[in-house]
Amino acid sequence: GRGVQGALERREYTAARRLPHALIIGVKKGGTRALLEFLRLHPDIRALGSEPHFFDRHYTRGLDWYRSMMPKALEGQVVMEKTPRYFVTTDTPSRVHAMSRHVKLIVVVRDPVTRAISDYTQIISKTPHIPSFETLAFKNHSTAEVDSQWSPLWIGLYALHLQRWLDWFPLEQIHLVSGERLISDPAGELAKVQDFLGLQRIVTDKHFYFNKTKGFPCLKKPEGSSKPHCLGKTKGRTHARIDPHVLKSLREFYRPHNEDFYKLARQDFGWQ
Ligand code: A3P
After folding, report:
1. Does any domain span residue 21?
2. Please, which residues have CB within 8 angstroms of residue 166's CB and are 6 or more apart in sequence?
3. I need a surface site. Which of 56, 137, 213, 261 has the fewest CB within 10 A?
């Protein structure tokens, strides 16, 4: 109808494209796809399926382009996207802040050593003839000096990256998800994320089952389907086998960085 009442009704019942209210900003190989797929079960969440890379790659296209990428949402629904590279790109925090200083930020973190191996496993699956993990991880072929510039290792310097976000956003606006617990207790991690987003806890343990063949939690009924569903083959890959000495050396390298990260995050993720 017309008039104030009609306007209110249209506002409430018309789906429109809106800028995101929440972003999954990282980390690459942390479990970001799993988190997004699980959140999509929530009727009050509207999430973009692909990674738009707006703040890191396509920023010059402008906010109208970015908005046009978003799924339509009703008033009150939470619009989201995930682009794991946001967490580690220098210009992103200020750009996100310029869009909205109230946006909610989510980071899935995972033991940086396991994350690096997962990252390397993905790289080698695309470019099979690259040098070994060990060769790339250390300078001068000695396990003494870690090459922290190498992307799979550099991404795991979480304290450094989080600090850049904390220069723009208060910690209360950044929710950290444990990548390990997302696998061992998906419903528990999802409960905290839904609380953080101000949503009812609708995604619960009823939605998950542990698939023994896959070795990961899977969905009993994903969105728009009645069949059980696990993530694809590229999620939950078998990792390259790494020499225990190499692992030890990397764990030592990350120890102080992890300690810094726990302090900044005000929580201990228990990586050792
Ligand atoms: P691996 O393939 O190394 O095991 P992202 O989606 O951010 O790229 O993260 C990929 C990682 O998500 C996988 O790394 C896997 O460990 C993790 N993961 C978490 N929950 C999962 C699930 N339910 N199914 C498959 N992978 C999951």
Report:
1. yes
2. 174, 264
3. 213
146, β-bridge pairs: 138
Distance CA 83, CA 24 (A): 6
Question: Does 33 contact ligand 1 (Cβ within 6 A)?
Answer: yes
Rounded to whole angstroms, how far apart are CA atoms 248 and 47? 39
Q: Separation of 6 CA from ligand 1 center, angstroms? A: 46
Is 84 close to ligand 1, i.e. is its CB under 6 Å away? yes
Residue pLDDT, tens place only, 104-126: 999 999 999 999 999 999 999 99
Please state, in angstroms and rounded to a whole number, the distance separating the CA atoms of residues 59 and 62. Answer: 6
The residue whose C-alpha atom lies closest to atom 4 belonging to ligand 1 is: 236
**How far is 166 from 174, CA to CA, in rounded Å?**
9
Between the CA of 3 and the centroid of ligand 1 the distance, in Å, is 51
> What tokens appear for 155 in the block?
């991404």
Residue 134, in any domain of the structure: no
Q: Please give the Cα distance from 75 to 18 (Å, whole number).
A: 9
Q: Which domain holds residue 16?
A: 11-117+154-265
235 in contact with ligand 1, CB cutoff 6 A: yes
**pLDDT tens sequence across 166-191:** 999 999 999 999 999 999 999 999 99
